[in-house]
Here is the input.
Amino acid sequence: MKNNIKIERARNNMTQADLAKCVGVSRQSINAIELGKYNLSTILALKIASVFKMEFDELFSLEKEDW
Amino acid sequence: MKFNYLFPHYLKRVGFVLLALGVVALMYSFLISNTPDFMDFNVYALIRQRFLSPVEFFSVVETNFLDELIAGLLILGLGLISFSREKVEDEFIAKTRLESLVWATYLNYGVLLLSVLFVYEMAFFMVMIVNMFTILIFFVIRFNWVMSKSKRQLRHEE
Here is the structure.
């Protein structure tokens, strides 16, 4: 699953630590999600979308290998 | 996400203390005496079986308690280190924990299978003793290695 978290963080002038604090996870988690090393849960994805005030599918999209 | 099956974070330190005491006791048993007089106790046994004798239930046994103490300290220490929460315990860490546990189980039983095939007599008995602890040791090493790798990556990102 692709995501635009890094771009949205930059747009909102947020660090990984800021976002991690907002959604209650570790910085390692945000870093792993941004690097695509880990597919996050629906709850966490919705929390992150809510922090950026975006719709889920504006922030996350499926890749070919996800099907 | 709730992680009810884990111990509180502060017990990780207690785990390190117990593990250190266990290692000191192990060194004592190797280097000084593995049956010191001051550790001779009568203990309650649920089950015992003396050599070529029938099984006995609910009896009192005179034993040297040092090996029980060492095993207890090592199991409790490694158990608390393995299964205490991280400061921030989240789903990524839970995933790393699960993967490390699977990895440690495969490795542990892989080593045990090789030992069954290639190690014999008293050497195999020693393998069985060490094997009581290796699954937790492999888990602790793998989990902490992955966590420190992801922390290093954070520094690199900065």
